[in-house]
Structures are given as structure tokens and as C-alpha cells.
Amino acid sequence: xxxxxxxxxxxxxxxxxxxxxxxxxxxxxxxxxxxxxxxxxxxxxxxxxxxxxxxxxxxxxxxxxxxxxxxxxxxxxxxxxxxxxxxxxxxxxxxxxxxxxxxxxxxxxxxxxxxxxxxxxxxxxxxxxxxxxxxxxxxxxxxxxxxxxxxxxxxxxxxxxxxxxxxxxxxxxxxxxxxxxxxxxxxxxxxxxxxxxxxxxxxxxxxxxxxxxxxxxxxxxxxxxxxxxxxxxxxxxxxxxxxxxxxxxxxxxxxxxxxxxxxxxxxxxxxxxxxxxxxxxxxxxxxxxxxxxxxxxxxxxxxxxxxxxxxxxxxxxxxxxxxxxxxxxxxxxxxxxxxxxxxxxxxxxxxxxxxxxxxxxxxxxxxxxxxxxxxxxxxxxxxxxxxxxxxxxxxxxxxxxxxxxxxxxxxxxxxxxxxxxxxxxxxxxxxxxxxxxxxxxxxxxxxxxxxxxxxxxxxxxxxxxxxxxxxxxxxxxxxxxxxxxxxxxxxxxxxxxxxxxxxxxxxxxxxxxxxxxxxxxxxxxxxxxxxxxxxxxxxxxxxxxxxxxxxxxxxxxxxxxxxxxxxxxxxxxxxxxxxxxxxxxxxxxxxxxxxx
Length: 596
What we know:
Elements: H1 5-33, H2 58-71, H3 86-133, H4 135-139, H5 142-164, H6 168-178, H7 185-201, H8 206-210, H9 225-237, H10 241-256, H11 265-278, H12 282-295, H13 302-320, H14 348-355, H15 364-367, E1 372-375, H16 381-384, E2 388-394, E3 399-403, H17 408-418, E4 423-424, E5 426-428, E6 435-437, E7 441-442, E8 444-448, H18 454-467, E9 477-482, E10 487-491, E11 511-518, E12 524-525, E13 528-530, E14 535-537, E15 544-548, E16 562-564, E17 567-569, E18 572-580
Helix pairs in contact: 1-3, 2-6, 3-6, 9-10, 10-11, 11-12, 12-13
């Protein structure tokens, strides 16, 4: 009887368990640091896959197959777009923590099982070594003969039943329960695009992002070669060759520095060379393709691409009528090597500069006209004894900030009520007036009524007291939480003349004013900017800003086109009240001119 195979099989199982435990150790460090916090700005997605070539037993294969089937199931949150809200993403931190605990229990069960089998195999190894040396002499003892019959009839059957036990059932059951709340492929894609948006807005090079060098971060986070490669593939699949080049170049840089990776250098060079060609840089495309041919001479596309690129280059040279061309060099591609393609937003450059704190048009002369004061709401009884602090943020159009507009308790209560109701934020279609999802608004929001809680009613009343405008015809209090790269690109709060039906269903007229509460501090990014006149207002927890969208005549003030900049690091919570025209006739009477 050959028992040598048993230790070999156990070595395979122990290798598998050790690999899982090593992965868990890295996760444990992150959770210990982020017990009550969330890693913001960068998402690290941990893939629990066994390394290629790791020996497996049939039971482990079955377990992995079951896991793959479960992970492939459709998520009940598939349309929820989890990445758009940091508030909801924090729940996933603790879900993952619970799954790891379940995985540890599975490991312990497997180790206990293997320890029993190992002890049994060790005992039998000694026994069979003696019995096979002199079988007849061994069996001459009647006790040995009896025990052999017993072992083969009973004990080996018990061992077989032990081996057939599957400790993974509990873990599989647990993960199947939680799987419905997992992010899906669209979430991963959305998070990748969010990183690219942050990269563009704040002029961050891929190396800085991959090394986690972001302002205000509390935790370290890095992007590996494979992460950068996946970022590049996401851009490539979207036809975005600009970002493909940047991220594939970062993956190549890390590979050249000796970083370990699953993907090969040939894979990276394949995407990089073709994307560089699409950016119109033939000389560099040729050099990268030549390097690809050296790395992988049998690559199915490299040779054909190289010949095609060289023909195009030769044609360019002939048409340019130049006898000499500067030699092509494969210098590293950096941020700024290629121009970023223009898009649909005309004020993109101005908007993003303001998000970075650049181009703010606050001169010393204008600054001297800004003041702070105690505001009692035109002697409102509720503000007489406790007036609110008011600061001028901008002179024209006038934007003011109110300090201590919300208490910490009120903020937490509003967030508590809103969090279960958060859904992808929508915008009102200018033609139909119907609310719809838009790519230029990335956040989740909830609408709260005064009847939901006394705190909501109190906040609504406070807004009315401060502004002097009735909130009876205002929209519900909207609470928004911004996720990874969360933003709301330049927009108007009021409806324009070419959108006459935008608020028709409400029957309360246009949005005359906006009252915006900041319910969190933001470590980096997240400013409210006004590209038309170059203003930037930064979030400060507990404060609120207020401005009029319409002149007294009812005409829209087009200068108030504004945006919520992408959140670079942090979690941004805001709540706002859109105040409408109806009911304000005596509270804010018409002026003498169109622009009063």
C-alpha cells in the first residue's frame, strides 16, 4: 500500500491555504486601519484568484467553480451604481471584512481536517513500513490480522467520509448572501473613469496616482502593473486612446523597473503602440512596435502592424519633401506629451482650472468690498436673539456663506435618514421636464420631506428664516453624496427660455434661489465653482452658501452657471433647497429694470 501520495496531496492543500492566508494578511492590515474610515480617492480591487500553475485537488477545483458561478450572478445593485456614493461604498468595507472572517473559518476547518488526515497517514506510514517488511510474519499475530480487517472495513471508510466533507459550504453560502450587494462591472468601469477624470481635472500624472501621492490622503494605496493595465484597457474599450497611452505607459514603466505582474510586457506594448498610432505619433508607434517584435517575435499582429506603420511613415516623408528626418526616440510618454482631445464642454479648461484653485478672479479691490456680519433675517423673531453669522463670498453676483447653518447632530440625522434612500442623482430634461440620469452628474441623492423627521422640518424653517423666502413652494430638501470622482459639471439651476416646460409639472415657477448646505469637509477637491466670473467656493462643514438664480424681473442670471468639482480625496455630503418663484411676490418684489 502506497501512502506516499497522501502527504503530497496535503502539501498541495496547504499551499492553497497558505496563499489565501497571505492575501488575507494584506487585507487585514487595511481593515485595521480603516475600521471607521474609508479609503477615498483610489479603489483597490482585490482579486482572490489562485496563481496560474498552482496545483489543485478536485475538491478545490469544485470549490473554485462554485465560487466563480456565484460571483458571476447578477447583482441586485447592478443598476445602483455603487461607485457614485462614498456613503454606500463604506458598507462594502464591512461586508468584505465579514467575508474574510468567513474565509478564515473555512481555512481553520480545512486545516483541522488536514491535520486529522496527516496524523492518520503518519500512523499508517509507520505501520505499513513494518507490515510490508514481512507480511506473513506480521499477519501471523491474530491481533494484527483482526486490526487489518477492521481498518480496511471501517477506518478507511471513516477517512473517506472525512475527505468527502466540504468545509467550504459555509463560506459559499455566506458569500452568496452578500453577493447581491457587490459592485458589478459597470461600477468598476465607472470607478476607473472617475480616476481618469481626477487625473484630468487636477493634472495628475499616472505615476503619482499609482503611487498614491494625493493631497490629504490618510491611507496609502497603490496601483500595480495589472491595475494600470486594466485602467488602460477600460479607456481603450471606450475608444479613449489618450488615457490608454498614459496608463499603458505607466504599466510599461513599472514592468521595466522589475515589478511583478500577471500580464506580459508584450500585452502592454501591443495596446500602447497601437494607441500611440491612433494619437498620430507614427515615429513612436514604430519604435514601440519594434520593441514588441523583439519581446515577442511570434506576436500575431506585431509584424503586420510594423510593416503598415513603416509604409505610412515612408509616405509621410515623401510627401513632406524632406531629405532628412530627425531620428525617432522612445522617450517616456508623460502628461502633456499629447494634447487632450476637446469635448462637449466649452468652458472645460476654465472650469477645471478653478477646481484646482487657479484663475480665481478675486482681486484685492473686490476683496475689500466683502464683509462679515450678524444676520437676523430682517428682524425675524427666531434670529433676533441668536443671529446667524454671514460672510460675503462674492460681490456680483452676490454669494453669501452662513456659518453654523447646521449642527453636527442635524448633519448626522440628515445623513442617517438619507442614506437608505440614496439613488443615482438625476437632472431634469430641458425639453420634457422628466428627471433622467446624466454622465455629467456623478453622485447619489435622496429627497427628504419635513414630515420625515423634526430635524428636516427645523432645517426647512431655518432656510426660510435666513433667506426671507417662503419654502412652501420650494422643492424637497435634496441630500447628495459624491462618490469616487463625484462631480456635477457646469449647469444652471434655473430653466432657460428654451426650456419652458422644465418645472411646469410643479406649478411653482422657476428656481429663484439656491441654498446649499455643506455637510462635510473635503480633504481635496469638491469646490463649487462659477466659471463665468471666476469664483470658487470651498466646502466647510456646517456652513451654507446662498445665491439668487433670477433677477427680480424673473429673468435668469446666466452668470450663476456653476459646477461641483470632482472630489479628489474625501467624502462630500451636501443638502440643498431650490426655492421657487411662487409665493415670493411680496417677499422679493420686482425691480425697476430687467437686471435688478
